[in-house]
Please model this.
Amino acid sequence: MCGIVAYCGAPPAVPRLLSGLKRLEYRGYDSVGVGLLHRPDDRLCVHRAAGRLTDLVAALPNSGLEAVTTGIGHTRWATHGQPTAANAHPHQDCTQMIAVVHNGTIDNADEVTDWLDARGHKIATEVDTELIAHLIEEHLLEACDPLRASPVTTTEGPADRVAGPAALERLVAAVAGAVEHLRGSWALAVAMDGVPGIVLARHRSPLLLGVTRTALMAASDALGLGPHVEDVRELRDGDVVALAPNRQVSWYDRGGRAVAPPDPLRLSVRHVDAELGGALDYTSKEIAGQPAAAARILDTVAGRLVGGRLLDDLGLPSTLPVHLLACGSSAYAAAVTARLLTQFAGLRTRVMTASERIASPSDGDVLTVAFSQSGETADVLACLQDGRRGPWLAITNNPGSTLARRCDAVFDIQCGPELAVAATKSFTTQVLAGAALALALSTSRSRRDILAWERVLLAVPDRLAATDALAAPIAAELASTFAGQPGWIFISRGAGVPYAQEGALKLKELAYRWTEALPAGELKHGPIALVTSGVPVVAVTAMPTQRLAVNLREVAARGAQVITVGGRIPDAVLPAVLPAREPPWGPLESVVALQHLAREVAVELGHDVDRPRNLAKSVTVE
Ligand code: F6R
Model:
């Protein structure tokens, strides 16, 4: 979570920083701040605001910003301390001369706090980032006076002591020294009053550096770099990097020794279509964009499923057991895929919630498939560090992401950036990627069988479009009837269960309603106690429909308001256009109807559907 940008070079720096922050705002939007260095003497000014980037922009001074050549910025999703202006980054040291923006978490914050307390530092916030600013201050003071034994007693800052041409190098040494005290993860950008340039550092939290014709730009993900960067390099764990205004970049290791830069990434920073184009919000734009997104990914797999050509092209074996791991909506896409791999392809599979992973007994190599829209989810990346047994495939929307760069193969779902926080088109296209992968892995199935299901798969975009048109107005009517209901139950059977779970997650995220999502057969084992008069029970049509119908009669008898989704149960309340015979990947199209339902309930309740409370798009903390 949280996004970092840094800019160093020719003015105007502020518009570049703000547009980088805007592109990263999906990563967190509860507070925001910038630290700016003004010409001619690199005077540092810090501006922070609670709320969104627009709140920061409103708080910026009307004049003087054109003199800013260099700056750092941060958009936050609070982990330590409330989302207030005081807790927003950049954080500062006792003298207010150092400004630090940080992604990640400091695991030994208590220990560092005690150490800094003992040395006289005044810690003003509960945010772990602030400790880093004080540690840098401490190292600058120590560099001036290596025998310093007494605590900080003066408000006279360390900047004047490090002024001059070597100022940036001294700041590098101080940052390298400061991070030696830390355990945890960090991507840092540091600016200091009177020091021309910026220092970056990284440990287990991504940070990229790109070059434009006139400046250097750093960001915690490729989207933040913007469209004009070339020569993008990713900092390695332990790297400390100095950015000078003349676009000179100096790379150092964790000991402060000069090192060669890493190789440039083969990365194309995708153009972000940030226009609403007539849609009311990004969520509705992205729901409506699903047929096109589906057609795009299916175009890339058409004709490559029989005989496992897709696997050959990805350079992956077809015989290994498959482990699938992901979080949130991506985990439901992984569950759909796992079912297909087991039941249709006959492969041994294991699905893991990435945050709950446990190492399995080593019984040889496996193919690990990581589903992650962003490719930056910390829990997923942490699994990579647990050790590898066999090849890894990333199914992601971000081929420049950390996950993609670290996996052996990448299946790009290429659904275009999702600017709404809740996953919609990325879920649909992850399911399609998973289905294509599973068909390609079905080596025991006949060619005819695979071709028949490939034809059904290729017709998904049309069915998604038909569902979109049919379901949207009905979802709006349902929302006006049911929006006041505080608790909802989502059920299905078999291959429909992950879609019911995804529909429930959407309602939670967008409408802040309590939801229960479960296989319909489990109702009688406890959750049916929740059913009272008027409770909405949303049932996703899936095989075997007769058994689902029995469960629906049971809840209706207890007063539930049954909302059937799909086409097969007679008189489905919320239509979804499904194939005549249930495909092995289940009733995918129903998810469009469920997305509309969640969005319409949220709109009815007056919520911001694109930026739901407490959430961020990319969950970069474990
Ligand atoms: C739900 C949602 C989240 C993500 C989850 C994983 O709408 O957006 O549940 O699916 O945080 O994110 P990625 O796919 O980026 O790893």
About this structure: The radius of gyration is 26 Å.
